[in-house]
Specification:
By secondary structure, this protein is of the alpha/beta class. It folds into three domains: 31 residues; 218 residues, P-loop containing nucleotide triphosphate hydrolases (Rossmann fold, 3-Layer(aba) Sandwich); 62 residues, Alpha-Beta Plaits (2-Layer Sandwich), CATH 3.30.70. It is 39% helix and 25% strand. The protein contains 13 helices and 15 strands. The strands form three sheets. The protein has a six-stranded mixed β-sheet, sandwiched between helices. Strands 5-4-1-2-15 form a five-stranded mixed β-sheet. A hairpin with a 2-residue loop joins strand 1 and strand 2. Helix 5 crosses helix 6. The protein is globular and about 70 Å long.
Length: 355
């Protein structure tokens, strides 16, 4: 058989097609990985034998804002600290900004901006002095210019001589963000940055975050505020160390398959306790002058609503679930990893991918 015959044979053509498809898939996977600011797998951290972060995978594309939601003690801060090199995971591997989270932890610290829950700068130094100190820590070559740019970027120039301890919560937040950005990182890890800040300051902060995202900066931000969650490109909900849901707001609500009813009337407070213990009811929450009752089994929830004791007239109607309904219902079903009779860390891997 000649070489020409071999090239023309069906087997050869099939092999060629297979090789081309394999090479294309490999190239696409490689391109996707290089476009990920965060790409970690199987992250786990145990304290006293309990997994506070349990086999979590995280993949966040460059330039995206990923909201990280969950109750207190759910593992958000521990996860963030592992991502930025401050904690070493007990198991798991991966990269941040292309750097290995275990081998290159020291380099990651210098290339990400990490904003802690608590204000961590010196209150007896001025705004400018704090930023100059941070610039020295990062060994920036032109510290004066870097500080000037950071002050201007966050609108702090006019207040640069003010002591940090005399600032309001909103201005402290701006200073903390300026310190995170002074070395021009491509990844921001923000741990409940707007806790205790007024709505105007929170809105201004989020406007700044979206502006940074348009410049290609990736943001992973933990928050308890549902209005902030709605401003993220994608969301992840973690409880007791495991990712319970991920996706956009609409995707998470649709995936939950949650059925919700609104109850309106007088003396609604008296309805909360009996409804919460009714079969099939996952969550009961007051929203202004109404109560939201949610569950997965429509018949059971309707039976619970039909049997509630009440005086006067009640108006009951089905409604669309919101993020708060979904997350409250999720946490109701999630096993607590610190309850003594809860099963030990399960091997099931939770996956969070932001595409």
């Amino acid at each position: 058989m000649t070489s020409a015959d071999l090239t023309a044979s069906p087997i050869s053509e099939n092999n060629l097609a297979t090789n081309l498809a394999t090479n294309l898939a490999t190239k696409l996977a490689s391109n996707l990985e290089t476009n990920l600011a965060i790409n970690v797998r199987g992250l786990s951290k145990l304290y006293n034998g309990r997994a506070v972060v349990d086999a979590v995978d995280i993949a966040v594309e460059q330039g995206k804002i990923c909201g990280f939601l969950g109750p207190n003690g759910s593992g958000k801060t521990t996860t963030i600290r592992m991502l930025c090199g401050l904690l070493t995971p007990d198991t798991g591997s991966g990269t941040c900004m292309g750097l290995d989270i275990i081998r290159d932890a020291a380099q990651i610290k210098r290339q990400v901006g990490y904003m802690t829950q608590k204000f961590g700068l010196y209150e007896d130094l001025s705004i400018r002095q704090n930023l100059e100190f941070i610039a020295r820590l990062f060994e920036l070559p032109d510290r004066r210019n870097a500080v000037d740019l950071s002050l201007a970027q966050l609108g702090l120039t006019a207040r640069q001589s003010q002591l940090a301890g005399a600032l309001s919560g909103g201005w402290k937040q701006r200073l903390a963000l300026a310190a995170c950005l002074i070395h021009q990182p491509k990844l921001l890890l923000l741990d409940e940055p707007t806790a205790g800040v007024d709505p105007k300051a929170r809105r201004e902060f989020w406007d700044q975050i979206h502006h940074l995202a348009t410049q290609g900066i990736t943001v992973l931000v933990s928050t308890h505020y549902m209005d902030e969650a709605e401003r993220c490109h994608e969301l992840a909900y973690i409880a007791y160390g495991k990712i319970l849901a991920r996706g956009t707001e609409n995707e998470i609500i649709a995936q939950s398959k949650l059925k919700v009813w609104t109850v309106q009337g007088e003396n609604l407070g008296a309805l909360l306790a009996p409804l919460k213990t009714s079969p099939g009811v996952l969550s009961v929450a007051a929203f202004g002058n109404a109560v939201h009752v949610a569950g997965l089994d429509e018949d059971l929830v309707q039976a619970a609503l039909a049997n509630i004791p009440h005086q006067g007239q009640l108006k009951i109607a089905s409604c669309r679930a919101n993020l708060e309904d979904v997350f409250i219902s999720m946490i109701a079903n999630a096993p607590d990893n610190f309850v003594h009779d809860a099963p030990h860390s399960r091997s099931t891997r939770s996956t969070l991918e932001t595409r």
